[in-house]
Design brief:
The protein has 190 residues and is an all-alpha fold. Helix content is 61%, strand content 0%. The chain has two domains: 30 residues; 131 residues, no CATH class. The longest helix is centred in the N-terminal third of the chain and has 27 residues.
Length: 190
Amino acid sequence: MDTSMQFLRDIHGLDPIGWWPPAIGWWLVAVLAIALATAGVWLWRTAPYQFEGWRWDARQRLKRLRRQVETEQPKAIAGELSELLRRIAIARCGRHMCAGITGPAWLDWLAENDPAGYDWRKRGQVLLKLPYAPPEPLESKETLIELIDAALAWVIKRDNSVLGGSSSGSHAWESRADTSSLRSGTASDV
């Protein structure tokens, strides 16, 4: 036998591989899982508004109006709120139900069709007077904030009683067809 062969030893086995630290692939899987979980939570929280078309758009515009109450003239805010309420009503109930209603009849219609039960007849008088009045003092800002909050509640509420108690039928189709009037920025559709 060769003298160099006597110093060689047989392979007994490898040491077991520890689970920590994980390989780079497992780190990537963990980061991807956290990103997917975060995206899922975000979608779950925003999905009721994100994918609702006119509801999401109306909610964003009302929130913007609420922020502008402190910096802009109440007259401009009241005019934009009045126009936006008309667009919301058309998108929610259909053009044939509310497009031609003006004045106190408009406030009556809002009060009757608001699922939250807000008293538009009493508290909404500022919508009829303020857009056409000379610049108002600052006390109408609180009233405008209250009206914007009531409009937000109306947008968020998913009550089909406005449509005659059914979610199908001609009203639902007309409501979908009229959503373009909410998204357009012109007053000609109102």
